[in-house]
Each structure stands twice: as structure tokens, then as C-alpha cells.
Amino acid sequence: MRDRVAALDFTKREARLASGERLAWDRLILSPGIELMRERVDGLQAAHAAGRVLQAWKAGLETAALRARLEAMPDGGVFVLTIPLAPFRCPPGPYERACLVADHFKRVKPKSKVLVFDANPEPVSKAALFRSVWANQYAGIVEYRPNFNAVAVAADGRSVEFELGERERADVLNVLPDMRAGEIAARSGLATAKDRWCEVDFLDFSAKGLPKSAGVHLLGDATWPTRMPGYRRPRRRRVTRRGGCTAWRRMPSALRPWAERGRAARRQRRVHRFRRPRRQTWSTWLAPVWPPAGTR
Ligand SMILES: Cc1cc2nc3c(=O)[nH]c(=O)nc-3n(C[C@H](O)[C@H](O)[C@H](O)COP(=O)(O)OP(=O)(O)OC[C@H]3O[C@@H](n4cnc5c(N)ncnc54)[C@H](O)[C@@H]3O)c2cc1C
Domains of the chain (ranges plus CATH)? Predict the structure, then answer.
């Protein structure tokens, strides 16, 4: 079905679609992704609407447009990438992007530079790895500057201003603003963590703040990245998939009868295990002859 969800009614357990159709649910699995908070950087909304500053943080036309700009940039140009405070979609993503662009520059435009301005005190993912790659493979191309929080972009989209008043000019500017859970989650009151992310019970990925009977499960980047003991949840595709599996396993068997069949088969196997003969060991082989009769 190709449509958008316009509203969710948790009491009636019903989704209203943009086409006007209504869908009732037994279980609702919501994975609405993220929204970019462009309004948090002065001038970014307007610069983006005019096509002067791109984010390319949701795959599609913008990604291709950013690539075209980098290809059109003259040798000796500067690509500026700004990173917001964590949490944001795909923690290694911005640092990977810096490497990809640097790789392109190294091969095609060796006089160009990649300037990375990070609002965080260090790369929020694989810090040692990225720092070593920049120092060894892309020395003189990538410059990484921590603790730089972008607060404004110029109307022409060619420069960015930071919290402490510094400015940087760019030939291609890629400003990543703060992010939050997708619009539909926020509008439905599911973004309970700092008004930005959706809190879930990680045992079944059900939405916190709603009764379990509402049957609402949240997955993916929209969820609040809580640390579980011994397991850090980065916002990556793998996590969305794993979350889906967990929610699926926890679903009542009425919704997935084949799982019930599997369970019945496992029960059957357990019964058979009791009937199997005892495992043979040295002592069971020797039992008839050892220890010799009379010494037992
Ligand atoms: C540059 C970059 C590189 C990345 N590289 C990797 C990588 O190498 N490996 C990896 O594992 N992850 C990577 N990721 C992260 C990965 O893309 C995300 O973690 C993953 O896409 C999250 O899935 P999601 O379902 O939460 O959101 P999305 O993939 O954004 O899906 C959300 C979907 O919901 C739809 N939607 C939203 N609202 C509504 C509505 N009201 N009605 C109907 N539909 C709606 C949207 O249209 C969208 O299709 C990368 C991300 C970026 C930005």
C-alpha cells in the first residue's frame, strides 16, 4: 500500500491515512525515521529551501545533488561539513562522509580540503579509527575541529557561523542540524525523551507512555538510544532489523501461527530427549566387567 499515515488514534487502535482511508490494527509497528531540525540553525531553512545548502541525510535526490556539487567544485575548493551534538542518525555517518569526500579529492582534486566541524568533543563513533585514517591517509586534506557548534548559515549558503562567533567560508557547505524522531511519532505524542526521541521498552520495543494494550511498537532511528547493559545501540540499519526481530518474536502467537507450530515441534523434541538412551561413556562401556566381580 502506498500512502502516508496522517494520524494515529491509540484508543481506537486506528490509523488515518492521507487518502482518508482508516486502518485498524492489532499491532502497530512504527519506524518513521528522523526529522531534521533545520529551524535550530539560523538561516538554514531558507538556504535549504533555495537549494543553497544541502543536508543529504535522507537518501534520495539530495544525495545525488551533493555529489554533483562536489564534482563541480574546482580543485583547491573547500568542503565544510558540520556535525550536531549526538544523538543523531548514524553516528559514524558524517565521519564516513568526510573520508569518502577526502578520497575523491585525493584522486581527482588534490588541492581541495575537507573541514569537519563537530559540536561533540570527539568523533562520536570509532574515534581512534577515524583520527588515524585522517592523519595517515588523508593528511593535508581532512581537518577535524571538535567543539564547533554551527548556529547560523549565510543567506548565500557559502559560509557558516559557530557558537563562539567564528565563521568559515565554503565552496560546498553540508550542515547537519539536530535531529529528532519522525514527524508522525512526534505529532502523536510518542517522542517522550527530551521531546525528540521515542522511548521504548527494549524487551518488546513497545512504546513507553502507552499501555501495552495499545499494541504499539517502535523501531529504528526514531527510538531513544538508551544503553542496555553490555550492549550499545547505535542508530543503524542493523539495529532497526534486530529490533524488528525482537518485536516479532514477542508478538502473540495468534498473529503468527507458524511460530506456534515451531513451538509445538520444540516441545515434541524435548519429550524425545527424555526417551533417548543414556549417552555412552567409558564407565558405561566398562560397567559389565569393571570393577571385577567380588571387589564391587
Ligand atoms: C549517510 C548515511 C549513511 C548510512 N550508512 C549506514 C550503513 O552503512 N549501515 C547501516 O546499518 N546504516 C546506515 N545508515 C543508517 C540507516 O540509514 C538508518 O539507521 C535506517 O535507515 C533507519 O531506518 P528507519 O526505519 O528508522 O528510518 P528510514 O529508513 O528513514 O525509514 C522511515 C520510513 O518511514 C516513512 N515515513 C515516515 N513518516 C511516515 C508517515 N507518516 N506515513 C508513511 N510513511 C512514513 C519514510 O518515508 C521512510 O521511508 C546511514 C545513514 C546515513 C544518513
Answer: 36-179 (3.50.50.60), 185-263 (3.50.50.60)
